[in-house]
Sequence to fold (337 residues):
Amino acid sequence: MKRLPFLLCAFAALAGSLRAADPKSAADYNRLLGRGINFGNALEAPREGDWGLTLEEDYFERVKKAGFNSVRLPIRWSAHAGAKPPHEIDAAFFKRIDWAVEQALSRDLVAVLNVHHFDELLQDPDKHEAELLALWKQIAEHYRDRSNRLYFELLNEPNGKLTEERWNALVPKLLEVVRATNPKRIVIVGPGQWNGLGALDKLSLPEKDRNLIVTFHYYSPFHFTHQGAEWLSESKKWKGTTWTGTAKETEELSKDFAKAAAWAKKHERPLFLGEFGSYGVADMDSRARWTRAVAREAEKHGFSWAYWEFGAGFAAYDRKAKAWHEPLLKALTDKAP
Fold:
């Protein structure tokens, strides 16, 4: 335990030094991701603003000044593309994404673009697989000449009828489309079952493609992180659930991340904790304790991470007050409480 502060400082210093250097491997690029945050509830809404959040330039500036290294941009491309082949993406929407990418890259923030909330695909993969391939063909071509600090994430949280078997079969097809125009760009891929940690063992990747980062999401214990969430019918019963950092609680977290680290070592793939967070109904002390514990445990194993999320239900930032929730910000940035 006495070495932990040193390791965290080394983690941050290495991420900083790599900004100036030319990254050589997926592990290098993963360290560039470092500590990140999701701009959730904006571009993955049916239309930006539908869920109460519209991205502003100031948000990117605040993220940069707070000390984060990257932003993840969840995007519902399927809501802005033609229903029939070639499923052309709306030009105005592309310009909006271009703006968001530029806001990040111009501040030396790594940007992750994903395909988010493609619900139709999850419900009927046979019907919509070709559409996902068409979307990635356009996205990859559009950004083929952009900075190598722009990463692609193939699909957020495969689930439903897009089973693990079907997802494993689809990944090589998607990579083939992306690699046609972006042979060396970093691509992020997660397992099935909602990018669940427990599904890592079932993820199959093309062995020869080493420009891949593997992602997983972590919301455990779920009754704590999702208490009071309006979209979950049972969540009212979970209100008042706390996370105090008991020996049992921290041991469960440590065991979970040790399993992920063992998988990463076995398969020689870097890991990105693409989402973790707690809903705002939980008490702030518990949220801060849990957030700090998860972030530090991830860093201990060399995982990059992105908190879910900036300014909506799981917010680290209070948009009305135009200020960070200090306990969460300190937990994320490893400042003393």
Observations:
- The first strand starts at residue 35 and ends at 38.
